[in-house]
Amino acid sequence: MCKHILNAQVSIRSPCCKKWFDCPDCHAEQETHPLLQKFEMIFACKKCKKCFRKDASEFEEADEYCPHCDNHFVLDAITPKAALRVEGEDARVDNRMLKDDRVKNDKPRTIFDPDLDADKLG
């Protein structure tokens, strides 16, 4: 899994060391040599797990899809962003952990409480 691009749809085979990477930043972190750039690229689709070649010099709009499963792999990259938030479930979905201050929590009533209905006894 790539920590730089969250929606990576393919892995790319590096032409210099013949290893698979999700992005150039992953190659730079794991290898000591610079990334060799060529026009012929080898991809592995993460959806159907099949490999295919594409020529980057003749890249067209139809080449943005996997030839085996039609997975659209040329997308705008979603990168992780730093954020501070409270861990837990969404309160709009599951609000059992929230206390409602509008309702007073009285003692639970039972049928054995004598003072609740003492005036109704005959």
TrEMBL record:
Highest taxon in the source lineage: Eukaryota
GO molecular function, one term: zinc ion binding
GO cellular component: mitochondrial intermembrane space
GO biological process, any: protein import into mitochondrial intermembrane space
SUPFAM superfamilies: CHY zinc finger-like
Pfam families per UniProt: zf-CHY
Xref: InterPro entries: Mito_Tim_assembly_helper, Znf_CHY, Znf_CHY_sf
Keyword flag Protease: no
Name of the featured protein: Zinc finger protein
